[in-house]
Amino acid sequence: MARMSKENVARFFALLAAERPDPTTELRYINPYTLLVAVVLSAQATDVGVNKATEPLFRIADTPAKMVALGEARLRDAIKTIGLYRTKAANVIRLSQILLEKHGGAVPADRAALEALPGVGRKTANVVLNVAFGQPTIAVDTHIFRVANRTGLAPGKDPRAVEEALEKAVPPPYLRHAHHWLILHGRYVCTARNPKCPSCVVNALCLYPAKTTLAAPAAVKASPARRPSNRARVSASPATARRAPRRGRRPAAT
To answer: Among this protein's residues, is 141 annotated catalytic?
Structure first.
């Protein structure tokens, strides 16, 4: 697939930045720990669904110590509306214990330490490093993977390849927020089905060959003239008209 030029990549992010000057995650959190928990819970789930579950949860358990005290059974009950909640509850309790045992209850600002926690992979670590600690990491999810390949911004065959391509392509001034600009653009504009190309601010730079367009109004077809019914034709005939006698029958005698 064609790759966007260096000059157009810079223009691409300048336009996204102008549209959303201060992008951020849509997950609700209180501190780095609750952010970590929210991101772990968001795997194969929507941010909206996670927020509904974590709002009451974080009121009673916003630290590793409080989460461990809450216990796995009560945590399962609190997040049972989220997919894979049993596995996620076990991971959250275990990672909370590890944070207490190895990190003094704090979330480490280190990729290797984060990825050593249960339920934390590269994408989750990238989100935490970016949002909680301001590191210029890019967590490639399904939205960013689609936008990077579809637009020609940073094509790649898998998330890791796209991540590395984006790290090379994105100009340094835009790296800090590139993750959120791309994920929000993919979530609300460059959607998987029926992307909103006509209203896209980077439409002119995008290399996607199958851009959508505004649908033309359907032509109104004229209705064919209706033939008058037999009754209507009879009523329209002169009142003096007489029906012709049927062939083979003689007129009645007078």
So the answer is: yes
